[in-house]
Amino acid sequence: MLAINDSNFEEMVINSQIPVLLDFWAPWCGPCRMISPIVEELSKEYEGKWLIAKCNVDESTDIPMKFGIRNIPTLLFFKGGVMKEKMVGSTTKAAIVAKMNSIE
Length: 104
Hints:
Blueprint: E1 2-3, H1 9-14, E2 20-25, H2 30-45, E3 51-56, H3 62-66, E4 74-79, E5 82-88, H4 93-103
Parallel strand pairs: 1-3, 2-3
Antiparallel strand pairs: 2-4, 4-5
């Protein structure tokens, strides 16, 4: 799975030709570990249709600050370089897929 950080965010997310799902997480976060397998599953299922990536908030501080990330996990959905939707907290695969489908 692609790791997004402060140095590659613009290139990989803002300039992406396909929609992007960006998972903000940290290794010490229990709910993050709960949804991580779902995000990884989705990255395989939607390969080529969506760019699904993770941003470790302990390693990258500019991106979370820019988007006001105060709680993790937080999922941001981008299309055309613009954030379209946001989901905060642990959630289900069905809820994530529904949000993705509403953006495509």
